[in-house]
């Protein structure tokens, strides 16, 4: 079963989550995992002004995803930061290039899930994931979230991301907060859950 993890990460938080998800999915026998990022649309000059250039350089060794790779996958996990309660423009640009797959029904019946990040606790993580689900549904995919079987999303002893819609992390207003162990365990759980469903659907 070929699982594809596609992400965009401006400051590295989603990249960290994606790497944790990939490692977790590989724990499932019979699962192959490919990690890919969507292409950057901002210039190095703009990234430098945003303080994101070093994070971009750190991810340069991760290949940019192609539409063909998305079609070849049996299960797909997407990761995106939040921009005003929605996905980033970089992720949207990639999704908008997949109309040919929709025309052929290439993704119909394949499981897909989403994880996200935002600067603040109530910065739009859930709306980002839910609005991303619209794309999965238009493609005919089977939406896979983060079930309450992952007890970590019910914790009240610490501030944490995570909802039944998908794993998430809180980056902090200045981006200094890194994904907590609970948040990483959430995306690991989601990745394993998605991989197991992918195996069942592939038969």
From TrEMBL:
GO cellular component terms listed in the entry, alphabetical order: membrane
Enzyme class label: oxidoreductase
UniProt keyword Cell division, yes or no: no
Residues reported to bind substrate: 102
Binding note for cofactor: Binds 1 FMN per monomer.
Pfam families: FMN_red
Protein name, as recorded: NAD(P)H dehydrogenase (quinone)
Species for this entry: Desulfomicrobium norvegicum (strain DSM 1741 / NCIMB 8310) (Desulfovibrio baculatus (strain Norway 4))
């Amino acid at each position: 079963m070929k699982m594809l993890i596609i992400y965009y990460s401006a400051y590295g938080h989603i990249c960290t989550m994606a790497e944790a998800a990939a490692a977790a999915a590989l724990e499932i026998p019979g699962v192959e995992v490919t990690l890919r990022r969507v292409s950057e649309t901002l210039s190095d000059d703009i990234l430098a002004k945003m303080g994101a250039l070093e994070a971009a350089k750190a991810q340069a060794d991760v290949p940019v995803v192609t539409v063909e790779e998305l079609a070849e996958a049996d299960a797909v996990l997407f990761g995106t930061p939040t921009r005003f309660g929605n996905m980033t423009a970089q992720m949207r640009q990639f999704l908008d290039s997949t109309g040919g797959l929709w025309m052929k029904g290439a993704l119909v019946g394949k499981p897909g899930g989403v994880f996200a990040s935002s600067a603040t606790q109530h910065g739009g993580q859930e709306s980002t994931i839910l609005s991303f689900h619209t794309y999965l549904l238009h493609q005919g995919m089977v939406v896979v979230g983060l079930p309450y079987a992952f007890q970590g999303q019910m914790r009240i002893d610490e501030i944490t991301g995570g909802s039944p819609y998908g794993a998430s992390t809180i980056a902090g207003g200045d981006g200094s907060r890194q994904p907590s162990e609970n948040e990483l365990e959430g995306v690991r759980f989601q990745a394993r859950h998605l991989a197991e469903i992918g195996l069942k659907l592939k038969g």
